[in-house]
Amino acid sequence: MREVFVVSDNIVSPLGSTTAGNVDQLKKNISGIRKQTDQSISPDPFFASLLGKGGEDRDDIFTPFEQLLLSSIDDALDKTSIDPADKKTIFIISSTKGNIGLLETQPLTEALEKRIALHHSARLIAGHYHAANEPLVVSHACISGLLAIITAMRMLQSGQYDHAVIAGADLISRFVLSGFQSFQAISAEPCRPFDADRNGISLGEGAATVILSSNKNHSSEIRVCGGSVSNDANHISGPSRTGEELFQAMSKALTASGITAKDIDFISAHGTATVYNDEMEAKAINLAGMQDVPVNSLKGYYGHTLGAAGLIESVISIRSLKENLLLPTLGFRKPGTNKPIRVSDQPQTGAFRHCLKTASGFGGCNAALVFSK
User: Fold this and answer.
1) CATH of region 5-218, choose from 3.30.300.30, 1.20.1600.10, 3.40.50.720, 3.40.47.10
2) Residue 5 belongs to what H/E stretch?
3) Is the model's pTM score more than 0.85?
4) Nearest to 168 by CA among 133, 136, 195
5) What are φ and ψ of residue 218, in 5° steps?
């Protein structure tokens, strides 16, 4: 089976338009989460990490969602010699909501129904780069970004393609925010993952791109080694009460990578700061015997960016491996899970070689992926 290497990446968020810019802000402990008063999204103030209005003008062909994707892909591609039009290159687009916000500003017509379809956006994006292949869409709740990387990894391992451009994005609309509000899942303050006083999520906007290749000449020293997915089969919105199913995904990802739990240097958790998600993750980590492995969540910086979350957090994990620097969990003050885990509350350094990235989402879906240096 062929090895898969990370070639380049990008993050576009309220913290910056490049990976380096984002990392610089994270090192300064700066969060994108602010008190928002945009009444087009909510009549009441709420905390979220939102991008500024406006953006790049592309002759009105592309929506703000698609422009966000293009900006991220452009920056990542500019740092490689990979030809996006090569027949051995596949584009994979990750999102949970895509252009759904258009329903709030435009009348529902047959043309709009076509316009909000994720596959339509994916084809426009791929067409912009003259891609030779039909693009793939991965939309699987909050594991979408991580599942997109796993899907690309498997395609490259099998020899079906040599290169993959994986990009994910989501924007926050009234529809998106009200959905989480209906679950009473939105925090009244910036979210606090794994903290004893956590009370819900903060949403966020952003995009990220990861470019992979099976050609070692394109390697940036990080490999995507193995991944797995599972499902709780428990509830449409509530996670497993035992953590057993996320543990299964973690265990299989480790096995596929040829390493054990003892080899993992840090875990980049989903860490949404809801009571049940963080508790479930802590149980899964304990089942895996990794309760002493440093854990962080980046939601306190970015909020929950939905279809972009797995990609944004993977890019930061890749940078953490490269720089041997684990970032803290912003907002964490005191342990808040019944099963103890080692939540990073200060920057940590070390000779890092292996990272485990996890994600979970509505419908009981779970994903785990190993990055190695």
Assistant:
1) 3.40.47.10
2) strand 5-12
3) yes
4) 136
5) -95, 0
